[in-house]
Amino acid sequence: MADERIQLIIRDAGLASRRKAEEMIRDGRVTVNGLVVEDPAVTADPERDHIKVDGKLLRLEDGSKYYYLFNKPRHVVSTMSDPEGRPCIGDLLKLLKKNLFTVGRLDFDAEGLMILTNDGATAQKLSHPSFRIPRTYTVKVRGIPDERRLSAIKKGMDLGDGEHVGEIKWTVTARQKSTTWINVTLFEGKKHEIKRIFYKIGYPVRKIRRIAYGPFVLGALTVGTWRPLTESEMTKLRSLPE
User: Fold this and answer.
1) CATH number attached to the domain at 134-213
2) Class for domain 67-130+222-238, per CATH?
3) Fold classification of 4-57 (topology level)
4) What is the distance between the alpha carbons of residues 27 and 216, in angstroms, rounded to a whole number?
5) E-state strands within the chain
6) Within this chain, domains 67-130+222-238 and 134-213 share the same CATH topology
7) Rounded Cα distance, 145 and 152, in Å
């Protein structure tokens, strides 16, 4: 097998997304033939070289690709492991016994739809902003924002720290006595973006649940459980733009 970039070898082994693999390398968690590697551009041959991540020998997958929908619970970290010892998705997926990584990070206190896979190329397609994959959330905010306040939620809205909202769509779905439910669709994720948007207009977020990711819908999937993609969903996955 020809030499490949270390971060892609880790990704294709199903240990992490390409971005997460790069972080692992820069943090000094990867060795090649006993030497610590901190440059993601370094190449190696996964069949010839001994590559270890956190001291464990990297083993290539059998070539099979796996795709699951997962309903992340609240107060669970959106990674397969957590150095701080907090509950993480990896704890919930031990029964799967597959090297998977997550697509579509959610905040610790958010819940809802995520994708689990060992297919790095597809994960890149689903997650990179350039592919403009829509993510839809149902958001509960404190208070009853009027149309004037809500009209500020639009492309170009200033989030602070030099960041601005990209393309966004929203619809009020229910107004209750002291809270409001709003569906929000984003096309590129920024850190804590939904919380920052509603904090900016004076209505703090109380709950976030992702209900759709690209062509996939959460539906009746129980919190904390997963299922393989259906044939129909696999067809939609294959039809995503290159």
Assistant:
1) 3.30.70.1560
2) alpha beta
3) 3.10.290
4) 34
5) 4-5, 30-32, 35-37, 43-44, 51-53, 56-57, 67-72, 101-103, 111-117, 135-142, 158-160, 163-164, 168-175, 179-186, 205-213, 216-217, 226-228
6) yes
7) 11
pLDDT one-digit tens code per residue, 35-75:
999 998 888 887 788 888 888 888 766 567 889 999 999 99
Mean pLDDT to the nearest integer, 208-212 = 98
| Amino acid occupying residue 61 | E
The yes-or-no answer on residue 107 being catalytic is yes
Residue 187 three-state SS: coil
pLDDT band, very low/low/confident/very high, at 121 (cuts 50, 70, 90): confident
Q: Which helix (H) or strand (E) holds 194?
A: helix 193-200
Tokens of 19: 């971005």
Coil vs helix vs strand at 135: strand
Query: Which is catalytic among the residues 107, 109, 158, 161?
Result: 107
What's the pLDDT tens digit per position in 10-32? 877 767 777 888 888 999 999 99
- Do residues 155 and 166 lie in contact, with contact meaning Cβ atoms separated by under 8 Å? yes
212's tokens: 């759709």
pTM of structure = 0.78
Neighbours of 209 (CB within 10 A): 19
